[in-house]
Amino acid sequence: MEINKKSNLGKTFKESEIRETAKRKSDTPVFLICLLLATLFWILIKLSADYSVTYPLKIKYEHVPEGKLLVASEDSVVNVSFKSDGYNLLDLLITGKLKYIPVNLGDIKMERIKSNSYAIFTQGLKEPLASRLNVNESEIIFSTPDLELNMEDLASRKVSIIPKLNLQFKSQYGLYAVNVIPDKITIWGSQNQIDSIAELQTNQINLNDLDANQEMTVALQNPLPGSLRIDPDRVKVKLIVEKYTEFSLKVPIDVSGISPIIRTFPATTTLYFNMFLKDYKELKTNQFKVVPDIKNIDLRSVKTLNLRIITHPKITRDVRMDPYSVEFIIVN
Predict the structure, then answer these.
(1) What pTM was estimated for this model as a whole?
(2) Structure confidence by residue, pLDDT tens digits, 86-144
(3) Contact criterion met (CB below 8 Å) for 265 and 327
(4) Quick one: which of 48, 241, 246, 328 is 20 to 30 A from 32 by CA?
(5) What is the CATH number of domain 253-330?
(6) CATH number of 155-243: 2.170.120.40, 2.40.50.40, 2.60.40.2380, 3.40.50.460?
């Protein structure tokens, strides 16, 4: 009978422990809800309070007067102090209005300090800033009484466009011509800036396995973004791709400028070169000039002379000759 009593006592203890654990579990959600509500009320109380704050705000100049160019600003950041409740501050942070101050140069009074230097009094920024931040204008305090900036007269000039190409061709194909439309564009900036720019490049064009014409619109690279204006800022680039092959041509060796008079054997040499098929009809023998190389040579002490290509038409490339040297005799 003693054993049964102990067994019943153990069973009762376990049941009591289970009930206590279940009660604690049921109390946990209630505790968390109370904690959440307490935190929420604390946040609401804090947000309803007024705070004196100071923020470093970037200066963003807008609406530069026509015919003028903003070159630089001495003040790019200004500290602004003001009072606001927590609700408004939270809204300003979320909307990003505390990142910068927009300054409308077309609508604000400026004072000329030097030839190209101007000052803007921060007193004139209070009203638009108060409206932007939804605060009392009288409570806005700037860390500086004025902002300094430099503006110059806007100048312009036309510059050439150079396409930046990285092209790979199929066998026996090459670039015949490049057309840029327009081939010149207008740039605007300070006189010093545009005087240093003679041409602009496009963004790089990368193409592989070319065997046909290509046409694309490409953006121009601005060497002075933010201060140099380009119009248009994109151009059309047309790539003319043609097939080429190797040709050969017998060309007479020109000895007319040599003294004493000589005669070469043979009197001609064969030139081998690559050119586009469509240009072959324009090829003429007299467009080539091959001469013996007699620089620092005593003609009476040698029997052969190397040959040199003096001129060849631009439509030919990779020009080579055979024979490369010839024998000669002195005629007079």
Answers:
(1) 0.61
(2) 778 888 888 888 888 899 888 888 888 888 888 989 999 999 988 888 888 888 999 99
(3) yes
(4) 48
(5) 2.170.120
(6) 2.170.120.40
User: Looking up tokens 């109370």, which residue turns up?
Assistant: 34
In terms of C-beta density within 10 A (0-12 exposed, 13-18 middle, 19 or more buried), how is residue 307 classed? Answer: buried
Which residue from 137, 206, 121 is spatially nearest to 167, judged by alpha carbons?
Answer: 206
Q: Which residues contact 278 (CB under 8 A, 6 or more apart)?
A: 176, 242
Token digits for 263?
């005669």
